[in-house]
Specification:
Oligomer: homodimer
Structural class of chain A: alpha+beta
Helix content of chain A: 55-70%
Shape of chain A: globular
Number of helices of chain A: 6
Radius of gyration of chain A: 21 Å
Chain lengths: 115, 115
DNA sequence: TTTTCATTTTAGTTTAATCTAAAGTTATAG
DNA sequence: CTATAACTTTAGATTAAACTAAAATGAAAA
Protein backbone atom coordinates (compact mmCIF):
# COMPACT_ATOMS: atom_id res chain seq x y z
CA UNK A 1 0.00 0.00 0.00
CA UNK A 2 1.93 3.01 -1.27
CA UNK A 3 1.12 6.50 -2.42
CA UNK A 4 0.59 5.40 -6.02
CA UNK A 5 -1.99 2.87 -4.93
CA UNK A 6 -3.81 5.50 -2.89
CA UNK A 7 -3.93 7.83 -5.87
CA UNK A 8 -5.10 5.04 -8.16
CA UNK A 9 -7.93 3.97 -5.92
CA UNK A 10 -9.13 7.52 -5.40
CA UNK A 11 -10.80 7.66 -8.81
CA UNK A 12 -14.40 6.39 -8.97
CA UNK A 13 -13.86 5.18 -12.50
CA UNK A 14 -10.89 3.09 -11.49
CA UNK A 15 -12.77 1.73 -8.51
CA UNK A 16 -15.56 0.73 -10.88
CA UNK A 17 -13.05 -1.21 -12.95
CA UNK A 18 -11.45 -2.67 -9.87
CA UNK A 19 -14.79 -3.94 -8.77
CA UNK A 20 -15.41 -5.70 -12.06
CA UNK A 21 -12.14 -7.59 -11.84
CA UNK A 22 -12.31 -8.09 -8.10
CA UNK A 23 -13.01 -11.79 -8.01
CA UNK A 24 -12.82 -12.91 -11.61
CA UNK A 25 -10.59 -11.88 -14.45
CA UNK A 26 -12.06 -9.83 -17.28
CA UNK A 27 -10.87 -9.00 -20.75
CA UNK A 28 -10.47 -5.31 -21.46
CA UNK A 29 -13.39 -5.53 -23.86
CA UNK A 30 -15.72 -6.96 -21.24
CA UNK A 31 -14.76 -4.18 -18.92
CA UNK A 32 -15.54 -1.65 -21.57
CA UNK A 33 -18.91 -3.24 -22.31
CA UNK A 34 -19.78 -2.89 -18.65
CA UNK A 35 -19.22 0.88 -18.82
CA UNK A 36 -20.95 2.10 -21.96
CA UNK A 37 -20.61 5.77 -21.07
CA UNK A 38 -16.92 5.83 -21.82
CA UNK A 39 -14.71 4.99 -24.77
CA UNK A 40 -12.56 1.91 -25.06
CA UNK A 41 -9.46 4.04 -25.06
CA UNK A 42 -10.35 5.64 -21.78
CA UNK A 43 -10.82 2.23 -20.19
CA UNK A 44 -7.48 1.13 -21.50
CA UNK A 45 -5.79 4.17 -20.01
CA UNK A 46 -7.33 3.55 -16.62
CA UNK A 47 -6.26 -0.07 -16.83
CA UNK A 48 -2.76 1.12 -17.46
CA UNK A 49 -2.95 3.40 -14.45
CA UNK A 50 -4.17 0.56 -12.27
CA UNK A 51 -1.52 -1.71 -13.65
CA UNK A 52 1.19 0.88 -13.06
CA UNK A 53 0.12 1.17 -9.45
CA UNK A 54 0.25 -2.60 -9.16
CA UNK A 55 -3.46 -2.89 -8.42
CA UNK A 56 -4.24 -5.25 -11.29
CA UNK A 57 -2.38 -8.00 -13.05
CA UNK A 58 -2.63 -8.76 -16.73
CA UNK A 59 -2.59 -12.10 -18.52
CA UNK A 60 -2.45 -12.33 -22.31
CA UNK A 61 -4.23 -15.11 -24.10
CA UNK A 62 -4.95 -15.23 -27.81
CA UNK A 63 -6.01 -11.73 -28.73
CA UNK A 64 -7.33 -10.92 -25.30
CA UNK A 65 -5.86 -9.39 -22.22
CA UNK A 66 -7.36 -10.55 -19.00
CA UNK A 67 -7.15 -8.26 -16.04
CA UNK A 68 -7.67 -9.14 -12.43
CA UNK A 69 -7.47 -7.20 -9.19
CA UNK A 70 -4.39 -7.63 -7.08
CA UNK A 71 -5.99 -7.39 -3.68
CA UNK A 72 -2.77 -7.92 -1.80
CA UNK A 73 -1.37 -4.66 -3.14
CA UNK A 74 -4.28 -2.80 -1.59
CA UNK A 75 -3.58 -4.08 1.88
CA UNK A 76 -6.12 -2.79 4.37
CA UNK A 77 -7.89 -0.79 1.69
CA UNK A 78 -9.13 -3.99 0.07
CA UNK A 79 -11.63 -4.64 2.81
CA UNK A 80 -12.53 -0.97 2.96
CA UNK A 81 -13.47 -1.12 -0.71
CA UNK A 82 -15.53 -4.26 -0.24
CA UNK A 83 -17.38 -2.61 2.57
CA UNK A 84 -18.04 0.48 0.46
CA UNK A 85 -19.50 -1.69 -2.28
CA UNK A 86 -21.63 -3.68 0.13
CA UNK A 87 -22.96 -0.49 1.67
CA UNK A 88 -23.80 0.91 -1.74
CA UNK A 89 -25.71 -2.25 -2.60
CA UNK A 90 -27.54 -2.06 0.68
CA UNK A 91 -28.54 1.52 0.03
CA UNK A 92 -29.77 0.61 -3.43
CA UNK A 93 -31.88 -2.19 -2.04
CA UNK A 94 -33.33 0.05 0.63
CA UNK A 95 -34.19 2.66 -1.93
CA UNK A 96 -35.88 0.07 -4.15
CA UNK A 97 -38.02 -1.01 -1.23
CA UNK A 98 -39.00 2.58 -0.55
CA UNK A 99 -39.94 3.07 -4.20
CA UNK A 100 -42.02 -0.10 -4.03
CA UNK A 101 -43.91 0.96 -0.94
CA UNK A 102 -44.57 4.34 -2.50
CA UNK A 103 -46.65 2.61 -5.17
CA UNK A 104 -49.04 1.20 -2.57
CA UNK A 105 -51.77 3.25 -0.93
CA UNK A 106 -50.32 6.32 0.66
CA UNK A 107 -50.81 6.41 4.45
CA UNK A 108 -53.54 8.98 5.18
CA UNK A 109 -52.49 12.10 6.97
CA UNK A 110 -54.64 12.65 10.05
CA UNK A 111 -56.99 15.61 9.56
CA UNK A 112 -56.14 18.58 11.78
CA UNK A 113 -58.78 19.03 14.47
CA UNK A 114 -60.84 22.20 13.86
CA UNK A 115 -60.16 24.55 16.76
CA UNK B 1 -13.87 5.08 5.35
CA UNK B 2 -15.92 6.33 2.42
CA UNK B 3 -15.20 7.57 -1.08
CA UNK B 4 -14.72 11.13 0.10
CA UNK B 5 -12.08 10.04 2.58
CA UNK B 6 -10.27 8.07 -0.11
CA UNK B 7 -10.22 11.08 -2.38
CA UNK B 8 -9.04 13.32 0.42
CA UNK B 9 -6.17 11.09 1.42
CA UNK B 10 -5.03 10.62 -2.16
CA UNK B 11 -3.45 14.06 -2.31
CA UNK B 12 0.17 14.30 -1.13
CA UNK B 13 -0.42 17.81 0.14
CA UNK B 14 -3.33 16.73 2.26
CA UNK B 15 -1.35 13.76 3.58
CA UNK B 16 1.40 16.19 4.51
CA UNK B 17 -1.10 18.20 6.52
CA UNK B 18 -2.61 15.09 8.00
CA UNK B 19 0.77 14.03 9.21
CA UNK B 20 1.36 17.35 10.96
CA UNK B 21 -1.85 17.06 12.91
CA UNK B 22 -1.60 13.32 13.39
CA UNK B 23 -0.83 13.22 17.07
CA UNK B 24 -1.08 16.84 18.19
CA UNK B 25 -3.40 19.62 17.24
CA UNK B 26 -2.00 22.48 15.19
CA UNK B 27 -3.27 25.92 14.41
CA UNK B 28 -3.76 26.65 10.73
CA UNK B 29 -0.88 29.11 10.90
CA UNK B 30 1.52 26.51 12.27
CA UNK B 31 0.56 24.17 9.49
CA UNK B 32 1.25 26.86 6.95
CA UNK B 33 4.64 27.64 8.48
CA UNK B 34 5.56 24.00 8.10
CA UNK B 35 4.93 24.17 4.34
CA UNK B 36 6.58 27.37 3.10
CA UNK B 37 6.18 26.51 -0.56
CA UNK B 38 2.47 27.19 -0.54
CA UNK B 39 0.23 30.10 0.36
CA UNK B 40 -1.87 30.34 3.48
CA UNK B 41 -5.01 30.29 1.40
CA UNK B 42 -4.09 27.02 -0.23
CA UNK B 43 -3.52 25.42 3.16
CA UNK B 44 -6.87 26.68 4.34
CA UNK B 45 -8.59 25.17 1.33
CA UNK B 46 -6.98 21.81 1.89
CA UNK B 47 -7.97 21.97 5.53
CA UNK B 48 -11.51 22.54 4.42
CA UNK B 49 -11.32 19.55 2.11
CA UNK B 50 -9.98 17.38 4.91
CA UNK B 51 -12.62 18.68 7.24
CA UNK B 52 -15.35 18.07 4.71
CA UNK B 53 -14.23 14.48 4.37
CA UNK B 54 -14.27 14.15 8.14
CA UNK B 55 -10.56 13.48 8.37
CA UNK B 56 -9.79 16.36 10.72
CA UNK B 57 -11.63 18.07 13.52
CA UNK B 58 -11.43 21.76 14.30
CA UNK B 59 -11.44 23.51 17.65
CA UNK B 60 -11.66 27.29 17.91
CA UNK B 61 -9.84 29.12 20.65
CA UNK B 62 -9.24 32.86 20.76
CA UNK B 63 -8.26 33.82 17.24
CA UNK B 64 -6.87 30.42 16.39
CA UNK B 65 -8.31 27.30 14.90
CA UNK B 66 -6.71 24.11 16.01
CA UNK B 67 -6.92 21.15 13.71
CA UNK B 68 -6.31 17.53 14.56
CA UNK B 69 -6.47 14.31 12.60
CA UNK B 70 -9.52 12.14 13.08
CA UNK B 71 -7.85 8.78 12.82
CA UNK B 72 -11.02 6.84 13.41
CA UNK B 73 -12.51 8.14 10.17
CA UNK B 74 -9.62 6.61 8.28
CA UNK B 75 -10.24 3.17 9.67
CA UNK B 76 -7.63 0.68 8.53
CA UNK B 77 -6.00 3.27 6.31
CA UNK B 78 -4.71 5.08 9.38
CA UNK B 79 -2.09 2.43 10.05
CA UNK B 80 -1.29 2.22 6.35
CA UNK B 81 -0.45 5.93 6.39
CA UNK B 82 1.70 5.55 9.47
CA UNK B 83 3.58 2.77 7.79
CA UNK B 84 4.09 4.87 4.66
CA UNK B 85 5.56 7.65 6.76
CA UNK B 86 7.78 5.27 8.69
CA UNK B 87 9.03 3.74 5.47
CA UNK B 88 9.79 7.16 4.04
CA UNK B 89 11.81 8.02 7.13
CA UNK B 90 13.63 4.75 6.90
CA UNK B 91 14.52 5.37 3.29
CA UNK B 92 15.79 8.85 4.12
CA UNK B 93 17.99 7.46 6.86
CA UNK B 94 19.36 4.77 4.60
CA UNK B 95 20.15 7.31 1.93
CA UNK B 96 21.93 9.53 4.45
CA UNK B 97 24.09 6.58 5.45
CA UNK B 98 24.95 5.89 1.84
CA UNK B 99 25.89 9.53 1.30
CA UNK B 100 28.10 9.32 4.37
CA UNK B 101 29.92 6.19 3.26
CA UNK B 102 30.43 7.70 -0.17
CA UNK B 103 32.66 10.32 1.44
CA UNK B 104 35.17 7.66 2.57
CA UNK B 105 37.78 6.09 0.28
CA UNK B 106 36.13 4.49 -2.68
CA UNK B 107 36.68 0.71 -2.89
CA UNK B 108 39.17 0.01 -5.69
CA UNK B 109 37.90 -1.80 -8.71
CA UNK B 110 39.98 -4.90 -9.43
CA UNK B 111 42.05 -4.42 -12.62
CA UNK B 112 40.99 -6.72 -15.48
CA UNK B 113 43.59 -9.39 -16.10
CA UNK B 114 45.36 -8.83 -19.44
CA UNK B 115 44.49 -11.76 -21.67
C1' DT C 1 -15.00 52.09 17.75
C1' DT C 2 -11.03 51.25 15.23
C1' DT C 3 -7.21 48.25 14.57
C1' DT C 4 -4.93 44.05 14.35
C1' DC C 5 -4.41 39.13 14.06
C1' DA C 6 -5.62 34.60 12.40
C1' DT C 7 -8.08 32.64 9.24
C1' DT C 8 -11.52 31.95 5.40
C1' DT C 9 -13.46 32.93 1.00
C1' DT C 10 -13.55 34.48 -3.74
C1' DA C 11 -11.99 35.26 -8.48
C1' DG C 12 -8.95 34.16 -11.71
C1' DT C 13 -4.95 31.40 -13.32
C1' DT C 14 -2.08 27.37 -13.77
C1' DT C 15 -1.55 22.65 -13.70
C1' DA C 16 -2.98 17.96 -13.86
C1' DA C 17 -6.51 14.30 -14.90
C1' DT C 18 -9.72 12.41 -17.97
C1' DC C 19 -11.97 11.85 -22.06
C1' DT C 20 -12.57 11.27 -27.38
C1' DA C 21 -11.28 10.16 -31.94
C1' DA C 22 -8.06 8.38 -34.71
C1' DA C 23 -3.85 6.00 -35.68
C1' DG C 24 -0.74 2.28 -34.28
C1' DT C 25 0.31 -2.72 -32.39
C1' DT C 26 0.11 -7.47 -32.20
C1' DA C 27 -1.64 -11.93 -32.84
C1' DT C 28 -4.74 -14.84 -35.33
C1' DA C 29 -7.56 -16.16 -39.44
C1' DG C 30 -8.14 -16.49 -44.15
C1' DC D 1 0.59 -11.87 -47.70
C1' DT D 2 -3.72 -9.17 -46.35
C1' DA D 3 -7.57 -8.65 -43.26
C1' DT D 4 -9.53 -8.52 -38.89
C1' DA D 5 -10.12 -8.58 -33.87
C1' DA D 6 -8.68 -6.91 -29.46
C1' DC D 7 -6.13 -3.72 -27.52
C1' DT D 8 -2.92 0.27 -26.81
C1' DT D 9 -1.07 4.71 -27.72
C1' DT D 10 -1.10 9.48 -29.21
C1' DA D 11 -2.77 14.19 -29.94
C1' DG D 12 -5.81 17.36 -28.75
C1' DA D 13 -9.93 18.97 -26.18
C1' DT D 14 -12.56 19.21 -21.96
C1' DT D 15 -13.01 19.08 -17.12
C1' DA D 16 -11.54 19.22 -12.50
C1' DA D 17 -7.99 20.28 -8.88
C1' DA D 18 -4.71 23.23 -6.82
C1' DC D 19 -2.64 27.43 -6.30
C1' DT D 20 -2.12 32.74 -5.79
C1' DA D 21 -3.35 37.29 -4.55
C1' DA D 22 -6.55 39.99 -2.68
C1' DA D 23 -10.82 40.91 -0.30
C1' DA D 24 -13.74 39.49 3.52
C1' DT D 25 -14.76 37.75 8.19
C1' DG D 26 -14.71 37.52 13.12
C1' DA D 27 -12.80 37.83 17.49
C1' DA D 28 -9.93 40.25 20.59
C1' DA D 29 -6.97 44.28 21.84
C1' DA D 30 -6.38 49.19 22.16
Amino acid sequence: MDAAALAAVASPRRREILRLVWDRECAAGEIHQAMPDVSFGAVSLQLRALSGAGLVTCRREHRHRFYRANRAALGPVASALEKMWDDALWRLKLQAELEQSRRGPRPRRRRRKAS
